[in-house]
Amino acid sequence: MKSIRKFVVSIVGALLLLIGILMIILPGPALIIIPIALVVLNSQHPDKVRRCTRKFQRGLSRAAAWMDKKVRQWG
Known about the structure:
With 75 residues, the protein is mostly helical. It has helices spanning 2-25, 30-42, 46-74.
């Protein structure tokens, strides 16, 4: 029973995350759905979610630094 619950929660979390990622491109509240999906996934897979979140933060930091460099070159 516990493994079924874990599977269902994982599927729901993954679907919410996919919908949230699609909402980045399509109209919708992506900034609300993605954190909710991460909370749902974190309830069953805390280590994996933490690892993915750190990778995302590093990538976002690199993108922000790149954008900052480009803006400074233009201005």
